[in-house]
Amino acid sequence: MDITCDLLVLGAGPGGYVAAIRGAQLGMKTVCVEKEELGGVCLNWGCIPSKALLFAGSSYRLLSHLKEYGIKTGKVSFDTTALRARKQKVVGQLVGGVGQLLKRNGVEVVKGRGAFLDRGTMSVSLNDGGRAKIKFKKVIIATGSLPVELPHLKIDGTNIWGARQALEFDPWPKKLLVVGGGAIGVEFASFFSAFGVDVTVVELLPHLLPTLDRDLGKTLERSFRKQGIDVHCSAKVTAIDIKADHDITATIEGTDGKTEKIRVDQVLASIGQRPFLEGVAADKLGLTLDDRGFIAVGDDLQTSVKGIYAIGDVAGRQLLAHKASHEGILAAEAAAGKTVRMNWQTVPGGVFTEPEIASVGMTEQEARGAGIKVKTGKFPVAANGKAIATLHTEGFIKLVSRADDDTLLGAHIVGYGAADLIASCTLALELEASAEDLAHTIFIHPTISEGIAEAALDIDHRAIHIYNPRR
Prior knowledge:
- About 30% of the residues lie in helices and about 25% in strands.
- It is built from 14 helices and 21 strands.
């Protein structure tokens, strides 16, 4: 089986399938190789199924507060089998939609494991047997990433879960240890805690979500503690003793050297991701890797080898599905001869805990660390009318601007709908707007988004709905 094409895309995750569709739109004969399911990790074992579960957890938690509005729900229970089935139904619907989009755009999908033979040829070991050889003019590598494992924390699928196993929650845990306080870890902590699981989170660095603005992680930590989640920051799990399946003793050590042993019946390891380079043959192709092993790319997503592009997790920086999709569009356009430029400074990120968290641009700490004089404005969600009316008063909106010219540098939000609210701030960054521009933007009342304008006003102590002494 021999195939020739203008553009080959290796991987059909949120970056790869989008790149393939855009390549086909631009008139290139496009082939997409995928070893597992269309949609990749994000759609099948990541973003989408986890959000379905987090919605269920948030809804379950909300029921306990509705009595404040006179709504009596009685005893509420949940069915893990039905929960799992609903999650899979959502995934199945979207996977089918991706398949139809690829087909209708004329993209040929080859199911199997691809391996480069040289800079213009790939061999594919087909899932249903046999091999295919694909000759291509240009290629986009979109192979994603894999969980990082430690020698004493190997994912076995039974006692130590990765994210994939946690999404199946079989068996349902009673006591769960989450190792890693990044986005994946805290989202699962939020989900399981909502349904009554006794959750402990251990994070090596001083606060949760260590890559985000410090205020975000500290606020989430306080919220988690109120929810009954046990949080250990500046700590590490030094040993896992499995006496029998789901009879686990973990040793937690703090920076002071003191240790604590806890017994759990399940461990979730979420300590980071590494690039998936199987079949890529970086050495053979002459690809340059960065100091963490990710494929190095330029602003046009091209690697160190002309005609070879890399996008998504395998290309490092923010490991986010929407970043991969945007890179996929740009890489396909670059492969078609268009001039493109990826701006990684305006990639927003969301963490779908309760409360929700979103961020875009520079953190206050990054800006100060770079020698930039900044001003910040902060508005508490508890002072917002819509938040009060809907029982969502936790969190804040924080803006960071350059002190000398008021240029917006970053936005950081904790609270209900944060991942949707961040969009207006992302657009402001993309347009190189000032905080004053946001202050003069009229947001609908009553909405939580009004807090963005208030935070912008607060940069110069002019916020209306929180007290500012006369200056």
